[in-house]
Amino acid sequence: MSRLIVVSNRVSMPSPDGAQGGLAVALQAALRESGGLWFGWSGREVEEFTGSVNFEESDGVRSAVVDLEAQDVEEYYNGFANRTLWPLFHYRVDIAKYNRSFGEGYERVNRRFAEPLHVMIEPDDVVWINDYHLIPMAMLLRDRGVRNRIGFFLHTPWPPTRLLVSLPYHERLVRSMFFYDVIGFQTEEWLESFRHYCEHELGGRSEGEYIHVGEKMVRAVVCPIGIDFKNFREASETREANAIAERMRTSLRQLTMIVGVDRLDYSKGIEERLNSFEHLLHTHEELHRSVVLIQVAPPSRGEVEQYQKVREKLNELAGRINGEFAEVDWTPIRYVNRGYARAELTALYRAARVGLVTPLRDGMNLVAKEYIAAQDPEDPGVLILSRFAGAASQMKEALLVNPYSPEEVAEALQQALKMPLSERKRRFESLLDGVRTEDVHWWREKFVAMITETKVPPGKG
Ligand code: ADQ
Fold first, then answer.
1. In what helix (H) or strand (E) does residue 418 lie, and over which residues does it extend?
2. What is the pTM for the complete model shown?
3. The CATH number of 4-226+441-453 is which of 3.40.50.2000, 3.20.20.70, 3.40.50.20, 3.90.1030.10?
4. Which of 100, 242, 330, 391 is 20 to 30 A away from residue 185, measured at CA?
């Protein structure tokens, strides 16, 4: 079995309390099995970049990390990754910042990663690069003589061509992707957009899964990520989770709970969601004192102004809606800005009659899958899911909505709150089936197999 080298912006090592995301667990399992290595940024800032690598081993997983200097973090991470590519890839050209120093910082940091990384790669290793922070990595590794199989997985959407061309040097970025052997997308839609760009902007042509541009070619595939189902399910059945659920029920008394759980990010559509809930309260007075929306949104990327703005906006909006509708014994929105441990999260999902997952654009969205995994099969809740989340392509039995339309979301909420048990069960069982079989282990095995089996044409390396 070949050794797997995983590369991503941040590295996630096994933690003693076991509190980590499904992606981390799945990649750690793969690294453990293959005796591989996880490479990335340490998350630390140093005065001056030295390129020295810190190795660590924990619970059979090895990692190698480098520190970056303040300018790197500002230009590469807060700059090109989170102020340029993230909004652009989520169709937000209106807020994407195109600053030359961000692009330079991005390329510099990618080179700073490639330098120590290429010497760690042994001839039979399979290399897996993750996400938009590291798009040019294969090209930089090939420049340094790496001839191994290299795959790239994009966790976010890929934007339509007419938006992508607003990025200065877009061609340079996309051409660098032809140094990979395989590129994985979450959905057919993102893959189609990528193919469209290659054909219309680069004069490429498609042949089955392969896209050819000039002398180069790459295999482009769909491989949707899942959750660590078994682990999640088990966490939802622990005594701790049950005790928390009980506490929540007591605190909520007769109220029917709707839940939203998201990283605080404008792409998650939290503002639009609160507006939809407000619309529901306006149009359905009979629901006053009987429903509550619990919105959990731990802040992320606080260095970036757009994130500060959305945070302020949400504080204000939740306050305004509560001010308008609250009674002394009823607050319609409970808005919480912190992260929760897995047991708490599963209890929250299970206690909620409705899971309201309405991003404006999302590569996949794992919260939708977690909500389903946590439900009580005898009395499951209803998932309302944005049609613009990658998850919508797999989760057709959810109530699919346009998150920009408060009327449509409010109607779906009404439908979910009234849905009879038999229909809830039918929808849940079909959704559960997908979440269980196409889990995160299925995903990583499938993608690693795709990288491994793809023939490296002589042009690579
Ligand atoms: P994210 O944008 O971070 O991921 P998502 O897929 O929803 O979005 O994953 C969020 C994760 O954070 C979930 O596992 C959720 O449980 C956890 N989380 C959220 N709020 C939390 C809280 N308050 N406490 C604890 N945990 C919380 C990116 C892409 C997605 C894609 C994933 C994986 O943007 O589209 O699905 O990568 O590929």
1. helix 406-418
2. 0.97
3. 3.40.50.2000
4. 100
